Amino acid sequence: MRGAVDVETLEVFEHELAAFERAGVADLERQRTRNIAACSARLAEAQARLELISRSIERTDADIRRAEQDAARLDAKLTGGDPELHSYA
Amino acid sequence: MPRDIVTKPRRVRPSVGHLSPLAHVFVYVLLAAMLAVDYILLAQALTLLLRNDSQYGSIGLQMYVITLGISLAVVSLPHVSAILLRRVQARVMHRGWIPVAVALLLLWAALLAAITIARIKAGMDAAGAGGLTGLVGGSTATTPTFSWTAPDTIMAFLMLGVLATSGTISFVIAWLTTRPLLVAAEKAHAQVARLRTHRDRLLAEAVKAEEAAHHATKLDAQDAVRYAGAYTTFHARLDVIRARVATRLAQRARDPESTSQIIRELRARRVVEASGPAPAVPGFPPAAAVESAPVQSMPVQSAPVESAATAEAPVVDGPPTTWGFER
């Protein structure tokens, strides 16, 4: 029993420890890489949607401005002094 | 699932109070098509009516002008009447214009009736005259009689139906494409309100998307932190395991048998290599550290050493961790 641990066994221990460490580090790196990819994809999607929304908001603002102008024009026509001259129908 | 208003925005009318150019084009195309249909029908009817003159070609230009004028009247009288009624409804024009519109409609009806009667009369005359050929010499004295089932009568009423339909369509078009001013103003305000609601929803979507982006960055940062922690923990645990192996080695080095020789040999080899992934076996720790280290928790990776130690423990009288130098 005293000779159960000899140099070869210890070297085998060291070898297995090194292999285990390498495998663990590689596994961690793989997970990290995958998570980075997923996170960047999610971030890109969110920012594309932000871009889309900002452009849509600009367009809607322009639409609102135009619709307000139309409403003001129609109101002026409706409440204007001479309805005979400004006919819509 | 509610509709996504960002990727599929609701179609909004570009402007209120105006007909779109495409609708204008369609209206005029429809009016022109009805005009063409009326012209063809009336041309045939008038040719039949004036056959005794038109066969010599003497009435050609006059017939064309009359045909065009009647077909224009059939299409445009209901149009004008509808526009008049709309303007009266929108209070743009006085109510006194209503009799004018009604008179225009009555004129239109009278025109259609006159055309139909003339067509029936032409058919009766043609039947009474025996046609253009005059080959039937004996029947020239027959009086023309009206019959509902005569082909010319049926054709006259079919033509009346087509003309009345075209006039009605032009009336409906004029009625649909003109709106009262009050309704237009109300629609404009409703449009503004709807657009504002749409913009508010878009702002809410923007806030949500902002939060999503923030959440994504936060997840990324948290993942990086977790990765760093896992990396550190992993290396720390490996260092612990290596330290335990080294401790075992040190215990073995104290025993009088040849294990110390093994250790020395191993250390010498490692110094020569000096590039292994594992740290070099530290020097022999003091005896107190050596005694206290293996008591805390038994590592799994040093199972053979541990099993050897536990198998040996009942034999010796000391604690199982000090079996190496008790003898």
Concise account of the structure shown:
The complex is a heterodimer of chains A (89) and B (327). Chain A is mainly alpha-helical and 89 residues long.
- The figure for the number of domains of chain B is 2
Largest Cβ-defined interface: A-B, 56 and 75 residues
**Helix-residue proportion of chain A:** over 70%
Mean pLDDT of chain A: 81
- Biggest sheet descriptor of chain B: none
Termini separation of chain A: 112 Å
Number of strands of chain B: 0
Mass-distribution shape of chain A: rod-shaped
The helix content of chain B is over 70%
Q: So how many helices of chain B?
A: 9
Largest sheet of chain A: none
Total strand segments of chain A: 0
How would you characterize the overall build of this protein?
The complex is a heterodimer of chains A (89) and B (327). With 89 residues, chain A is mostly helical. Helix content of chain A is 82%, strand content 0%. Chain A has one domain. The longest helix of chain A is centred in the middle third of the chain and has 73 residues. Chain A is rod-shaped and about 110 Å long. Helix content of chain B is 71%, strand content 0%. Classes of the chains: A mainly alpha (89), B mainly alpha (327). Chains A and B meet through helix 1 of A and helix 3, helix 6, helix 7 and helix 9 of B.
